[in-house]
Amino acid sequence: MQLGARWAAVADILEEVFEDKYPADNIINSYLRERKYIGSKDRRFIVENVWNIIRHRCRLSFEAQSSEVRKILMVYLKDEDWDLIFGADAYALPSLTKDEKIWLKNLRDVPYPLWVEAETPEWLFKKINNLNLLKSLNEPASADLRINSSSVADVVKNLQKEGLFFSPTPYSPIGLRSSERVNLKNCAAYQDGVVEVQDEASQIAVILSQPTPKERIVDYCAGAGGKTLTMLYLMNGKGEVLVHDANPKRMEALKDRAARLNAKTFEIISDLGNEMFDLFVVDAPCSGTGTWRRAPDAKFRLTPEMLENLTRTQADILENAYRHTSAGGRIAYMTCSILEDEDEDIIRAFMCKHPDLMLVDLRQVWADKLNGAYPFNHPYMAKFSPLVTQTDGFFVCIMQKN
């Protein structure tokens, strides 16, 4: 592809991404899948620039004083040779007009408001009000894996033989991390079930839940089953986990993942019936604000109304968990959110309704099960973030029913 055609492809993808209806990942993959003639180098160029523009969408829109993709691209490319990009060939974007060139040359640097500097929609910046945290969530994420056999040291050596360089995660005793992007498509260790993709915070959340083979366990909002598979690994395949999700389609990947990881002792259920559980795991549907390193476009699709609906759902799910948790049992509440609305506020309101619940001291569990010093200020509510733990944003709280 000529340079102009590459940028035209970037513009095509951004036009759909900026409608804020669907995840950018899906849009990019669909665009490239439908155009198999695009070579690997062209694909890399297109994908990298699309994500870079998404990560700097607030700044670019602010400088352009517009949400139009063409103007945003003009600002992004203001220091490039315009004639090589705009109107350069039949597949390129239209040439810049005389007025557009004058407009570009007259652009002046203006101090950014804090929400622009944070690369976050203004309403969310006011709610979070932490510039450094938001900046850290706009950086690309590390590649984290969980071991599924042998030991961390042995798996590191096996991966090195494949030309993949990982080191142990700071806290999780079953985690590996690479600062570089990793393609596991042709990785033998991945295909053979030696490793599985999982952010360190998610690994730690499962470890803090302390699943044991003798317990009756349900992974209630299971999704693709990542935490189910981690629980089975921690129990050496000796226990059973019941798996449920309100949307059964989300669990379609679980069976294939389980087969690759040789995890067998789980059962997918359509409802809880009259079952009671010793460990009720709730990885609640949430805003996903903690995953912005991996999905920076998601912040633009979130609305106050969506957040309000999510918090109602989270409260309802916890009430259901309470009804199905045995006396002495535990409720492990998790979100991949950094918002207090979905984390601390939900827990406080829930515990006010149920005075028989007791918060588990996570510092003690951490000392017994994990590496490194407990990194959080609150002993009962673990709030992960790139700033504190070099992980995704994540929240964990465990309550015991007396």
Notes on the protein architecture:
It is globular and about 75 Å long. It has helices spanning 3-17, 24-33, 40-55, 57-64, 69-76, 98-105, 114-117, 122-128, 131-136, 152-161, 188-191, 200-209, 226-234, 252-261, 298-301, 304-323, 344-353, 362-369, 386-389; strands at 143-147, 167-168, 175-178, 195-197, 217-219, 241-243, 266-268, 277-283, 325-335, 357-359, 381-384, 394-401. The N and C termini lie far apart (66 Å). The chain is built from 19 helices and twelve strands. By secondary structure, it is α/β, with parallel strands linked by helices.
Instruction: Report mean pLDDT, rounded to a whole number.
Output: 96
Percent strand equals: 5-15%
The poorly predicted ranges are: none
* Amino- and carboxy-terminal Cα gap: 66 Å
Question: Which percent bin holds the helix content?
Answer: 40-55%
The largest pleated sheet is described as:
8 strands, mixed
CATH topology of the largest domain: Rossmann fold
CATH architecture of the largest domain: 3-Layer(aba) Sandwich
The total number of structural domains is 3
Number of helices: 19
The secondary-structure class comes to alpha/beta
Just give the CATH class of the largest domain.
Alpha Beta
Can you give me a brief rundown of this structure?
By secondary structure, this protein is of the alpha/beta class.
Secondary-structure map:
Blueprint: H1 3-17, H2 24-33, H3 40-55, H4 57-64, H5 69-76, H6 98-105, H7 114-117, H8 122-128, H9 131-136, E1 143-147, H10 152-161, E2 167-168, E3 175-178, H11 188-191, E4 195-197, H12 200-209, E5 217-219, H13 226-234, E6 241-243, H14 252-261, E7 266-268, E8 277-283, H15 298-301, H16 304-323, E9 325-335, H17 344-353, E10 357-359, H18 362-369, E11 381-384, H19 386-389, E12 394-401
Parallel strand pairs: 5-6, 5-8, 6-7, 8-9
Antiparallel strand pairs: 1-3, 1-4, 2-3, 9-12, 10-12, 11-12
Helix pairs in contact: 1-3, 4-5, 12-13
